[in-house]
Design a protein that fits this description.
This is Zinc finger BED domain-containing protein 5-like. It comes from Sipha flava. The chain is mainly alpha-helical and 177 residues long. It contains six helices and two strands, in the order E-E-H-H-H-H-H-H. The chain has a two-stranded antiparallel sheet with strand order 1-2. Strand 1 and strand 2 form a beta hairpin. The longest helix is centred in the C-terminal third of the chain and has 24 residues. The protein is elongated and about 85 Å long.
Amino acid sequence: MAPQKIRLYNDDYIKFGFTFIQKDGIQMPQCVICHVVLSNDALRQSRLERHLTTAHPMLKEKPKEFFVAKKNSLNKMKLDRTGEFQQNNEKIIEASYHIAFMVAQQKKPHTLGETLIKPSILKTVEIVLGEESKRKVSQISLSDNTIKRRIDELALDIQNQLIYKLKNSKSLCFPRP
């Protein structure tokens, strides 16, 4: 079996809305509109043009300058090495804590997060909001270890709040014998 041909990015590919990222020394095409990263094999005019016409049909008549501007704004964004956004993980972590709290309230096993809740959420988001939203939501960690750790952290926080309130409360003054 012959080794697979490594394709190289051509500057003309920007007219189809594509730039590239380096991944393990190989150029991978990245759409400047939806930021999806395709395989190196897709680094050819016909495949890039097909992505533009199927995924972004309303943009296929846009001039090259439009895509160059998108590329420039993409370069200013914080992307990790896979071409995905380095998201501010606060919302993802917050969602994980909320789900851990609900699991604790129901006194259910910690594995419920990864065996039932996450698959249910992912399927719902995929159906209602689409694949891109599903990818974002899939970053929420609901493993049994994560749920246990979050529940322990929530319990400790509640305990610390209670101790603080008791120490600073004047209504719990007991008369001394």
